[in-house]
Amino acid sequence: MTLSEEILTGRLIYLWMIENCCSSLSPETIHSPSFCLENTRWNIALVHNIYHVALRIYREMDDGMDQVEIEFDFCFFSSDDVAMCKEKQQLCLKRGDFFETVFKVHSIDIFRHRNKEFLSNDALTIRCRAFLIGSDTEKVHFRCARTRLGLERRVFFWRIENFSSLQPGQEIKYRIDPIASWCPSTTLILEFPTSDQVCVHFMDNSGVVIPKYALSMCALDETGTNYAAYHFLHSISCDGRLIFQQRKSLMPVRNLMKDDVLTLKCYLEITIGPLWNGFE
After folding, report:
1. Which residues have CB under 8 Å from 230's CB, separation 6+?
2. 178 upstream amide cis, omega within 30 of 0
3. Which of 149, 144, 189 is nearest to 166 (CA)?
4. CA 113, CA 115: separation in Å to the nearest integer?
5. H or E element in which residue 115 lies
6. Residue 236: per-residue pLDDT
7. 25 with 127: CB under 8 angstroms?
8. For residue 114, how many C-alpha atoms fall within 13 Å in the half-sphere facing its CB?
9. Is 243 exposed, middle or buried (0-12, 13-18, 19+ CB in 10 A)?
10. Which own/partner contact pairs does 164-171 have at CB distance under 8 Å and 24+ positions apart?
11. How many whole angstroms separate alpha carbon 31 and alpha carbon 92?
């Protein structure tokens, strides 16, 4: 019998660690390993978008009573293991139902502005304490689960020759080959829909896994100094496009772009869903 199949009675303290949490977190709903309380089966899920973060408790299609009453609370643990953002509920759930708690803290706070407070080595820790109302025992069980997400980070220079003379319809491609075995190869494309517009997008080369991308770019002058930075805080799917309305926004003063070569320093995060999901 595995830990996920073990039927527990009484109160459960459930710690769930999600590894490789970042601003390009994928997918938007990440489920924990399942656990059993008496004759009911549950899991929790982290739900996020670029604005909000929420936790859900799911009752799965188990063999227990059609409706049970559960008392539970959620919290996040800080990087120094202090409980934060506590939320408590008591409610009835039928088989297949879930309840969502939306936290006041925003996604951008957890994964960017306050990431050192919430994340320890890119890991987010969540606690759920659960108790089935009517249970005849007060025994406390402790379980630890872990989910490892796929994450690859890359930093590279992208040099684009004859930048000022590139014509509408032209494309400049930069192939990105993965280091991790799970990560598909992709191609970063710079194209010119019009004489003024510059468009950046990704082309997935595998067709098997569709990852998400988060891209930041810094344009450098001939001294290596950053004179223009573009930070995309949201995730970009393969069909997403980043459009610069003015080509000149990517160009420094003419004499600072040596030999008409645009140099971009790129920071890229590539993410997919769980690579591993289980109990410790």
Report:
1. 216, 217, 218, 242, 244
2. no
3. 189
4. 6
5. helix 115-118
6. 53
7. no
8. 14
9. exposed
10. 164/247, 164/251, 164/257, 164/260, 165/260, 166/192, 167/192, 167/195, 168/192, 168/193, 168/194, 168/195
11. 21
SS3 121: coil
Which residues are within 8 A (CB) of 57 and not within 5 positions of it... i.e. 6 or more apart?
42, 43, 44, 70, 72, 74, 93, 98, 99, 128, 130
Q: Tokens standing for 270?
A: 């590539």
Q: How far apart are the first and last CA of the chain?
A: 14
> Do 53 and 105 meet the contact criterion of CB atoms below 8 Å apart?
yes
Rounded average pLDDT per 10-residue block, the chain, 280 residues: 54 94 79 92 90 92 93 91 89 96 82 83 93 84 94 92 89 90 85 83 69 84 78 55 67 64 89 91
pTM score above 0.70: yes
